[in-house]
Amino acid sequence: MAVTNKHHPHSLRRVRQNGQQGDLNKKNEINKKILASAAIILLLLVGYANLKYAFLAQLALVDTDRPSSFSRSQTDPVALTDLARQEHLINGNLVKARYLYDRALDYCVLYVPAWLGLAELFNDRGEKNRAGAALEFVEKISRGSGNLAWSRAILANELGRDDILTANLVWLMKNRRSKRTAVISLADLRWQDPLVLLRKFGTAFSPDLLNYYIRVNELPKTRIVWQRLEQAGLNNRKNSLRYINYLLAHGKITAAARIWDRNFRNGDALLYNGHFKEPLIGSGFGWRISRPRGFTRQNPADKSGLRLTFDGSKNVSFRLVQIVPLPPGNYVFRGRAETELLSTNQRPFWMVRGFKCKGPVVRDAMFPANRSRSDFSLGFTVPPSCQAVQITLQRNHSYDFDNKISGTLVLDNLTVTGVAGK
């Protein structure tokens, strides 16, 4: 007769396997219950949302006497605030606007646009103290957020709150480049002194202030800002040329010439870039050249001088001009020129006349069709009424049947020198 051994290894293994299978079955049952519960909760949420929006839609249709019925959602502060602004700014219904702002804040007490709208509403109702208190609250809870910085600045300006106005304008100047012109315009309305704006915004923004004052044609203010800009070392090529051109447009030739001399002139030559080794900058007291079709320019192979080529396809009107600041006296304009196959009855010629003044006009003969490289000169006088002259190489429009100019003109070694004893 066999004896049963309760501790046989095979028996223990079967027991363990049965236990593990039971645990696995229990886990599967639990997971099924969790999934079923989650599905039920999701269905309840969807049903609640549908019921809520169906109710709100029905309310909007039937409850037309209450201001809230105009909102697409009775608990959405964004929608309520949008409706409030519409009532305030478009419909002029301040009572309804106040109700909608209050509802928005009931559902989100820290919703900044609602508070800002409420501050604007108080201001329009003449309740300055309440408007100021609301604006202070907006500034505290939204400090560091630039989304409403411009709106805060506008309201602060209306309420005379320079502290809040300054904080928001400075933030906008540093962080919203596209708003700088509007920011400076508002600041200039508030504080007329450009030194105040420089203190508030910092010297780093002096180029922006200079550009603004040029745009609105505030000549005295540009002088103040330019001085600070130069002191800060921000008188780069772009800023300098723009201010020089602005001064020239207003006839401030001496002031423009001083800035030009400090930033562009090399040596003591009266004519700038007479060898054409520098680029034609088209600005200030440098060479300005027209760019018509049928014309090209380049430096010769030896990089000395300027080659002007007309391709014979157009009846070109052309000018190469330089404004030269000069004290009254007698001068000679000299240079070297070479021509090849210049056509038509209208060919280039040199002319000297006063710049923004009444003075004698001196004109040289037209260049011949063909000429080897040789010297030319043209004397002229600067009267006491003039501070500068305009030296121009010009080709006029031709009215002949054969009027399309072709050929080449090379210029080099152009100078202006004073003539003593005359």
Q: How many helical elements?
A: 13
**Rounded Rg:** 40 Å
The structural class is: alpha+beta
Weakly predicted, low-confidence segments: 1-16, 48-72
Helicity level, as a percent range?
40-55%
The level 1 CATH classification of the largest domain is Mainly Alpha
- Count of DSSP E strands? 10
SSE pattern, N- to C-terminal: HHHHHHHHHHHHHEEEEEEEEEE
Oligomer: single chain
Strand order of the largest sheet: 1-4-9-6-7
Q: Assess the beta-strand content as a share of residues.
A: 15-25%
The shape, in one word, is: elongated
The CATH homologous superfamily name of the largest domain equals Tetratricopeptide repeat domain
Distance between the termini: 153 Å
Please give the CATH architecture of the largest domain: Alpha Horseshoe
